[in-house]
Amino acid sequence: MTRVAIVGLGFVPAQRKTPQYSYREMTYRAARQAYEDAGISPKEVDCFITCAEDLHEGTSIFDEYTPDQLGAVHKPMHTVTHDGLVGLACAWMAIESGAAELVVIEAHSKASNILTLDDLTTYAMDPALTRPFSLSPHFVAGLEMNAFLTQSENTEEACAAAVVLNRLRAGKNPAAAYGGETTVAQVLRSKPLSAPLKEAEKSPTADGAVVAVVASQERARRLKGRPIWIEGISWISDSPSLESREWGQAFYAQEAAAGAFRMAQITDPLREVDLFEVDDTYAYKELQHLEAIGLYERGKAGRAVLDAAQGPKDFPVNLSGGCLGRGDLLEAKGLYQIVELVLQLRGEAGKRQRACARRGFALSWRGVPTTSGAAAVLSKN
Amino acid sequence: MARRVAVIGAGMTRFVRRAKETSRELAFGASRMALDSCGLSLNDIDCVVHGTAPDAFDGFHMKGEYLSDGSGAFRKPYLRCYVGGGTGVFAPIQGWMHVASGLFDTCLVVCEEKMSSCQPHPQGAFNSIFDHTTERPLGPNLLWIFALEMNRYMNAYGISQRDIAGVSVKNKKNALDHPAAQVAKETTVEEVLASEVLAWPVHRLMVSPVSDGAAAVILAGEEKARRLTDRPVWIQGVGWDLDTSYWTNRDLAYPQYVENAARRAYRMAGVREPRKEIHLAEPYDPFAYKELHHLEGLLLSEKGKAPEDLARGRFDREKGELPTCPSGGLMGVGNPIAAAGLMKICELFWQLRGEAGKRQVPGKPERGLAQAWGDLMQVGTVVVMGIK
Amino acid sequence: MTEVAQNVKWIGENWKKEEVLHGKVFTFSDRPQARYAWDTGEAIGRYLAGFKQGKILGVRCRGCQRIMVPPRIFCELCFRDISEWVTLKETGRIRTFSVCYVTWDMKRIRKPQIPAVIEIDGASEGMGILHLVEAPRGDKPWERLRAGTRVQAVWKPKGLRRGAVTDIRFWRVLTGNANAGH
């Protein structure tokens, strides 16, 4: 088995709106940057993968519109309707199977162009059993947050603290759209969305694009850049049913993380991994995910987040600002996590740079109403 | 060298105009049949790949997520991949990568489409395949682009509608022997040409129907495959290729992307002379002309000469030198988009194992090819399978 | 020789027409609230602004020298930036066409539509756009059109143009098509 590395990266900073370019033009910018970073031409690439959903694009069979902006005309290329981390897994498999040596993955968000995002998300639910209630899709998060807080005895304050912390951190990240200062009290006072979930605890959407170049060890050696190795990758789906799923505990996160750690031969993540990017599409998700991946015992993640929000504490979670601070970038969420890990591991994270960053972990989630998640472990050695 | 991967089981539902079963039940039905065919249970499956074309047919956003349990993916690594109409032959390629990578030993590949849910007509799902700014304002429909391509193909090589109509006749007849077929019938070239003009040069009987259905295959790595069956059918070669989305800037006379995909698959399978080494083919036939167009792209006919080959019986199931669409294809069995492509993989599996019953191609074929196509006449997906 | 299908209970049962008509099919209807405002970006934004002025704009790539339409700010083949704009002619040739008698939901229409790929004069060979051709008289329009037939854009009046591809109403066959065909 060959090792597989990320050898090039390009991205457009997350922004609230991007009227200056079309999705094609935006992705092209990210691609140009990624190829320069890797020192390659797209002609050398064996296989291209886009992560996208038709209804987020407003185009049926969106994969039609994926090749040009990546320089992928007349190349093997396909689309995966999943988070970008699963795209990374597909790149990994394409290389390990011998089908490719050099793979490009892309995910983007033009969320600002979707005028009815909540309606679309509702359209992902069961037509006969759920849609007739005409609920905001965030009710699923409300149900889950309630179950999670009850089962774990974490507090609403701790969830609010995740918002404070991540917005603050996003202020140091030029690639984040929602950096700023807020307080736990302000978050708690924001309007209820689906109680106990509050308006300020939901990540606002943003536009952006990420392109990553992935290579086999052999191929990576012949390139100029410093490779960041993919040591573990894993993804899993739990139940799509709202009626029979296990509420409260993120089984998908637990299993995806376990799979990635196993593959990377990590037994004690807290000691062996230096930084973590975990999905925080909703504030409680950060706590829930931290417990599910085994970083904290049940009920203990909240305390850690509260402490970190109160003062300078070593809390290497979502140094990028997470979704709450960077913005919810739809299918590109996971690849923005990868951006943060790669920059940190290369020592290029500027004001956010964590000393001695050798190994990083990312966990992404598909969002409501799904129970699908993916995890990756990246290493600089 | 990556490890070898075999198809060890296959299943499909009947293809019907309006199924009583829901999307999830169709996916389940095909998956169950595939598992039963090789005596496996869901516990034996390490991961699941789902393939479906646009979300809009079934009426869901994130359709892959909604169908995960029907596809047997509960608490398993699961993803949905797609390349439009090419999906049915691409999904097993994605499954092949899953297993060949060494990450998984077994993989269930499921493709499903329930087009009848889309009202008033499933074509509605295709209205939004066009560029939202430069094309949709013109009110295009799906028939337009295929009629444009068919006309260009006819024009480039001097082919007539009569030359093409024979594909409908052959495939609808082949489908009479397929127990899951939706539009099998005995018909004639005259009848095809007399059917109403939908979008000249396309007549109604040159178009595949709207269908509901699902298909599934089980893949296994070499060691596992040999333990589970004494007749594995190996995936010998895979290839796929995507052309530019600026389809009005391309010459539609020849599907270069199909040739590129085929060449990759042949190289991997060690096929040097496809016309001799491929014993049967399931080219993609959503429209009658497409089968011929694709046979040329697959290098199984000369450019512009597939209609002549058809006329002299080269593609006949019983006596032809290269039987094509022995299943009855999309023109005869039906066209639940992604499921129809995977049906072609199922057909190769049954044919190469000698299990195709009345449809069995004579002469103990050892190697076959399945191909699908899609997007804006833009993607080719090819799988070469064989018993050696 | 065994047939796999023999021992199988086939799933996938069709509703019969009577069952549908007699209301036996229980359905739940829903329509997605899917609305978008797509950013046209630089290239298509300028292209549409050109339409409003009654001009068809293309771009030239300094790498492959192709003059392309619809315009783009990058060349998908050379994978480099494009910044040179060219005003193309409002005439062209039919590359391929169809005569369509049905709407997307398969309703018959009396006056057929004629979609065509039109190669625009002034652009590189093979560079076409999708548009509509005015129907010639007679009940077999395909006998009056061919690949290569020369056509000209018929614009909407200036005041009605709004920066959309429909600012061209349709393309009209130019008289004196003696050199039609390839």
Strand sequence of the main sheet of chain C, in spatial order? 8-7-4-9-10
What coarse outline of chain C follows from CA principal-axis ratios? extended
Strand order of the largest sheet of chain B: 3-2-4-7-1-8-11-10-9
Q: Could you list the spans of chain B in which at least 5 consecutive residues all have pLDDT below 50?
A: none
The CATH C-level name of chain B is: Alpha Beta
The helix count of chain C comes to 2
Flag low-confidence runs of chain C.
178-182
| SSE class of chain B | alpha/beta
Q: Provide the CATH architecture of chain B.
A: 3-Layer(aba) Sandwich
Task: Write up what this structure looks like.
The complex is a heterotrimer of chains A (381), B (388) and C (182). Chain A is α/β, with parallel strands linked by helices. Helices cover 35% and strands 19% of the residues of chain A. Chain A has 14 helices and eleven strands. In chain A, helix 3 packs across helix 14. The two termini of chain A are 17 Å apart. The model of chain A has no long low-confidence stretch (mean pLDDT 97). Chain B has 388 residues and is of the alpha/beta class. Chain B has a single domain, classed as Thiolase/Chalcone synthase (Peroxisomal Thiolase, Chain A, domain 1, 3-Layer(aba) Sandwich). Helix content of chain B is 35%, strand content 19%. In chain B, the strands form two sheets. Chain B has a nine-stranded mixed β-sheet. By secondary structure, chain C is mostly beta strands. Chain C has one domain. Chain C has a five-stranded antiparallel β-sheet, with no helix packed on it. Chain C has a three-stranded antiparallel β-sheet with strand order 2-1-3. A two-stranded antiparallel sheet of chain C has the order 5-6. Chain C is extended and about 65 Å long. The termini of chain C are far apart. Chains in contact: A-B, A-C, B-C. Chains B and C meet through helix 1, helix 4, helix 5, strand 5 and strand 7 of B and helix 2, strand 4, strand 5, strand 7 and strand 8 of C. Strand 3 of chain A pairs antiparallel with strand 3 of chain B, so a sheet runs across the interface.
List keywords for this structure.
heterotrimer, B: 388 residues, alpha/beta, Peroxisomal Thiolase, Chain A, domain 1, two-stranded antiparallel sheet, C: 182 residues, mainly beta, 2 helices
